[in-house]
Amino acid sequence: TSLSTPKKKKRDDGMREHVTGCARSEGYYKIDKKDKLKYLNNSRAFAEEPPADTQVRNPPVPAVNGIWRSEQRRLLSSFTGSCDSDLLKFNQLKFRKKKLKFCKSHIHDWGLFAMEPIAADEMVIEYVGQNIRQVIADMREKRYEDEGIGSSYMFRVDHDTIIDATKCGNFARFINHSCNPNCYAKVITVESQKKIVIYSKQHINVNEEITYDYKFPIEDVKIPCLCGSENCRGTLN
Predict the structure, then answer these.
(1) Which contacts qualify for 8-13: CB closer than 8 Å, 24 or more apart?
(2) Which residues does the UniProt record annotate as the domain Post-SET (predicted)?
(3) Up-side HSE of residue 70: CA atoms within 13 Å toward CB?
(4) Alpha carbon separation from 153 to 54, 150, 168, 183 (Å, rounded)
(5) In what order do the strands lie in the sheet with 162-164?
(6) From start to end of 94-233, where are the E strands?
(7) What is the pLDDT of residue 237?
(8) Structural fold of domain 79-128+170-212
(9) What is the structure's pLDDT at 54?
């Protein structure tokens, strides 16, 4: 047990020579600070020296946050003209959602209001809910009436699909109807799935209520409109 440990040899370059051929098999050992500096200096010099054929064609780009963000905006603007702008805007909306709040509205019950300025032709919010078929929508509408739920938040996507946000949705269900709205609804396709997104028609100021035209089909039983705009039609349908 009192065998003396053999003195570790060093290579010509000053680095320690591993007798077993593998540093991991020799357990934990301390490395002299001088050896660390030599290794770091050698590795840094190797990393900073690019290949001769790429020194001119690929100059180093400074990793500065401001430059990186401006480069991303430039690429996004260039993609917008050639790719699907709706998809890019939808990805932006998921990355940074608009600041919105719901509170009492002078139009009807609750409403959705902007907490930040919104420019024209921007995605404001996605109408989120459960995708159901027409048959299920008819059954749920009757059940909601029996349960005493005054308002059902159903939005038709196409002939076969309806989004029900009555019990499973987001703030978009609080958007009120207006005959002179500042937003409009649009159906877009993202990864082969249809989604309803609310776009801004014009610039929207802070604390301004978000509204769009429901475009209900014409029916005999009329639903009164309370938007109060100058060109109000009087009814939603």
Answers:
(1) 13/38
(2) 221-237
(3) 6
(4) 60, 10, 10, 18
(5) 130-132, 162-164, 154-156
(6) 100-104, 110-114, 123-127, 130-132, 154-156, 162-164, 176-177, 183-190, 193-200, 209-212
(7) 80
(8) Beta-clip-like (2.170.270)
(9) 47
Q: Mark the ranges of the chain whose per-residue pLDDT is less than 70.
A: 1-16, 36, 39-84, 92-95, 150-151
Instruction: State the DSSP H helix or E strand holding residue 94, giving kind and residue range, or none if neither.
Output: helix 85-95
Alpha carbon distances (Å) from 35 to 10, 11, 31, 38, 41: 10, 12, 7, 5, 10
How far apart CA 173 and CA 125 sit, in angstroms, is 10
Token pair belonging to 44: 């840094």
Question: Can you read off the two tokens belonging to residue 122?
Answer: 């921007």
Neighbours of 114 (CB within 10 A): 21
CA distances from 58 to 47, 55, 62, 187, 195 (A): 15, 6, 12, 43, 42
All structural domains of the chain with their residue ranges: 79-128+170-212
Complete edge-to-edge strand list for the sheet that includes strand 176-177: 100-104, 110-114, 209-212, 176-177
Structure tokens at 130: 């459960």
Nearest to 100 by CA among 183, 180, 162, 167: 183
In order of 12, 15, 117, the CA distances from 9 in angstroms are: 10, 9, 70
Structure tokens at 230: 């100058």
How far is 123 from 87, CA to CA, in rounded Å? 11
